[in-house]
Design brief:
This protein is mainly alpha-helical and 242 residues long. The protein is built from 6 helices and no strands. Helix 2 packs across helix 5 and helix 2 packs parallel to helix 6.
Length: 242
């Protein structure tokens, strides 16, 4: 059995129908557990007080905002190279979800930053690159809507996705590229010294798992919807021609 077999819309629909309930339940369990543990089961930070608990929304949302674009990049490359329609539709389906995560990250970052920095916004390298990433998400979605031919739209958005990947990388590594800026370093790192304290770290991992599963759940659901919409469009076009 080849992985590419699931690029067939019918097989994808069959697989996703079986997987979707499991992923949905797992995402709900992880999110409820992680958020309840983080907001109610952890102490206030000695410097940041209770505002530190925004980490359980901000960090997972920021991670998924970047990883959603990476997923779109991979799916777009598969479309551009192998012309599998499911991959193009999966990239299209992921864009509004990625935009939502990006907006959540920007909003929670402002709420977290205001009491810490004394301002809602600063032209910090990471904040600025995240704002540009949000604009790329908007441009990607608008380009899909603006082009009538779905294959042409997939080609153009695929190229846009490649270009936007530069800002996705900047959003992830801006703090490492530029030392100036208000934004702190990574909350999760292979270096134990840079990690948040264990009391915050473990519930944060559960929240991240919940966000990953939520993203997977929503992408599967929206991709199924896109496949149905494409089939419906093909049937309507066939009726008009007949």
């Amino acid at each position: 059995m080849s992985f590419w077999e699931y690029a067939n819309p019918q097989k994808f629909m069959q697989l996703s129908r079986r997987v979707l309930p499991v992923v949905t339940v797992a995402s709900v369990l992880c999110l409820v557990t992680g958020l309840a543990w983080g907001f109610f089961g952890t102490p206030d930070d000695y410097k940041q007080g209770s505002t530190v608990k925004i980490i359980y929304l901000h960090v997972p949302a920021a991670m998924m905002a970047i990883n959603a674009w990476v997923m779109m990049l991979v799916a777009s490359l598969v479309w551009l190279i192998r012309r599998h329609h499911v991959s193009a539709l999966a990239a299209k389906a992921a864009a509004p979800i990625g935009l939502t995560f990006t907006l959540i990250a920007l909003a929670t970052g402002a709420l977290w930053g205001q009491p810490m920095w004394g301002t809602w916004w600063a032209w910090d390298p990471r904040l600025t690159s995240f704002l540009i990433l949000a604009l790329f998400y908007l441009g990607y979605i608008a380009l899909w809507q603006a082009v009538d031919n779905p294959d042409t739209a997939a080609d153009l958005t695929g190229v846009l996705c490649i270009v936007g990947s530069v800002f996705a990388l900047l959003s992830r590594y801006a703090v490492n590229f530029w030392n100036q800026g208000l934004h702190q370093g990574a909350s999760l790192s292979l270096d134990k010294k840079e990690n948040v304290a264990d009391v915050f770290w473990f519930p944060l991992l559960v929240c991240i798992a919940g966000f990953v599963l939520l993203f997977l759940c929503l992408v599967l659901l929206r991709t199924r919807t896109e496949i149905r919409a494409r089939r419906l469009g093909a049937l309507l076009a066939r009726e008009r021609m007949g």
